[in-house]
Design brief:
With 112 residues, this protein is an all-alpha fold. The protein has one domain. The chain has six helices and no strands. The longest helix has 27 residues.
Length: 112
Amino acid sequence: MIWSYVSLALAVAIGAVAQISLKEGATKSGPLQAMIVEPYVVGGLVAYGFAALFYIIAIRHIPLSVAFPSVSSSYIIVAVVAHLIWGEPFGRAQIAALALIATGIYLLAAKS
């Protein structure tokens, strides 16, 4: 069972890396045709594939009602990293929203 949660954590982490990679690729590339071959975009899509595989492993033993909402923890990771890398806004509203997400994940995990 512990490996299921490790797989879920890997799925979330790899998914967050994929999102950051897609953002970096989107900012570096030009038109849509160039974006498709941008290494960061391709890397992000490949990373999403690996994240999906780990997620599938995780949901074999973790209830979907816990696993799926837990994926939203990637929102927290991505928001913090985007702030650190690109200086994206991280004010009170973002902090409050992310705290609500974290609270929801905690409540779901504590219940199961």
